[in-house]
Amino acid sequence: MPEVRGPVPRQRPKAALLVLGGVGLLLGTCLIGVVVAVVKPGSASQACPSPAESARWVDIRKFLGEYRDNEVRADSAFKGSCVLIDGIVSDVKRDVLNTIYITIGTGQALEIPKVQCFFSEAHAAQASKFTKGSKITVRGRVDGLMGNVLLRDCEFP
After folding, report:
1. End-to-end distance of the chain based on CA atoms, in angstroms?
2. Average pLDDT for consecutive 10-residue bins of the chain (157 residues)?
3. pTM to 2 decimals?
4. CB count, 10 Å around CB of 102?
5. Tell me, what's the pLDDT at 9?
6. Is residue 128 a part of any domain in this protein?
7. How far apart are CA 5 and CA 67, in angstroms?
8. Which of 21, 80, 108, 151 could form a disulfide with 43 if both were Cys (CB 3.0 to 4.6 A apart)?
9. How far apart are CA 94 and CA 98, in angstroms?
10. Which positions ≥6 away from 57 have C-beta within 8 Å?
């Protein structure tokens, strides 16, 4: 009489483990890239001129329209420059590194992109006064498009 055995335990294929490891490595690399981009902002490392000096005023509709239409052209026109911009507050939050930011736009529903303005802790009291829908004027250095158009070293004029 043949010998009866129980169910044979299944072994995970090595290919599946390699795929999962590759996906994990890819996600980790992307996360590191995002953190480096936030910590090391590139061309926006210089603060804007002092309030006595002028910043370039830009219309938010034109500014966001340029970035929606052609990011390369918009970067050549705005990236690294100090701008003064008026808009409507969408969010007042902190990012994963606990940096204060305010997103502003034209006030249209489902607007993409918006302007994401990063502030130092010195501006926390002023930033806390704004709510969704508030009108705001911000001065900061354009750092290009990464989901939103980023403005670094922002101040309230």
Report:
1. 92
2. 64 63 52 44 54 80 97 96 96 96 94 96 96 96 97 95
3. 0.70
4. 26
5. 60
6. yes
7. 67
8. 80
9. 5
10. 83, 84, 85
| CA 149/CA 147 separation, integer angstroms | 7
Give the up-direction half-sphere exposure of residue 117: CA atoms within 13 A in the CB hemisphere: 28
Amino acid at residue number 46: Q
Task: Confirm whether 23 is domain-assigned.
Answer: no
The reply to whether 73 falls in a domain is yes
Q: Which position has the token pair 């704004």?
A: 130
Amino acid 30: pLDDT: 42
Domain range spanning residue 74? 43-155
Domain count of the fold of the chain: 1
Burial-class residue 64 by CB neighbours within 10 Å (0-12, 13-18, 19+).
Answer: buried
Give the CATH number, domain containing residue 119: 2.40.50.140
Closest CA to 138 of 73, 48, 69: 48
